[in-house]
User: Fold this.
Amino acid sequence: MTANTSTTQQAPLVPASSPAHGITPEQRYRMIAEAAYYLAEKRGFVGGDMAADWLQAEAEIDRKLRNQESAATDIEQRVRTALAGDPAGIAQEVRAITLQALSHGKLDKEALKQVMTSVVQAALQGSAQRAKQGTQALKEALRGLDEALAAAAEAAQLAIQEAAGRTGEFSRQGLKRATDDLAVLESLLVETLTDVAREAQGNLKATLQDIINHARASGMVVGRRVMEATGQLAQVMAKTAHEQVEADVDTLRKEGELLAGLIAGALQGIAAHLQKAAPKSKQGKTD
Assistant:
C-alpha cells in the first residue's frame, strides 16, 4: 500500500539508522511510510500529527528489524554449529532449527525468505569450514531445510482448514492470501538457493547448482507437499465460500495475525512430533 504523501514529506529522504540484516535503507523507508499510513488510517485520517505518526512508525519498524536481525544471527550461529558436527545428524538439527524459527513468526513471503536465507547462507559457510565431507554436509543441511518447509506447508494447511471452518470469522481474501503464501514455498526456496549460489565457490557452488537444477526439473519435498495442500484447500474453500465474509485492509491484517497464531501452534505440534520420533527412526533422504 502506498503511504500518505503528506506523511512521507515529514520524513528524512535517507533514513538515519543502519539497515538491519538484509534490509536496505530504501526498504526500511518504505516500511516506515506504510506503518505511518496505517496509523493515520486507524483514526480515519482525522486529527493526529503526521510527524508523530512517522516517529512512532519508525520506532516500531526499527524494533521489528532489530528483532529480525537478532533472530537471523541466532539461526546462522546454530546452523554453523550443526554443520560442524556429525553429518548423519545435520539434517535433523537443521530441520529443528528451521522449524523453531518459523514457529515464532508469520509465514508470509518476507519472513520465509529471511529464514531460508539465514539457513542456506550459514549452511554454505559451515560446509566450507569442513576439511572433509563439505558437500555432503551441505546436502544434508538443505535436506533438513526442505523437510522443515514441508512441515510448515502441512501446518499452514491445517491452520487454513481450521480457519475456513470458522463460519464468519475469516474472509475469503484472508484465506486466499494465506493460501497464496503457502503456494510459493518451493519457488522461494529455489530463489534463495539461486541467490546464495552466486556467492559460493568450487565444489559447493557445483553442489548447490545441482540441487537447484534437480529442484526445477523434478521438484522438492516441500513442492510436493505444497501441491497436495493447495489442492485440498481449494476443495475446502469452495465448500465454505458462501459462508466467508468480505474484509477491509484492517480486518485482513487482524486475520493474518490470527492465522499466524494458528499456523505457529500447528507447526509447534508437528515439530514436537518430529523431534520425538527422530531418535527412533532413520531419517529418509529427500530428492
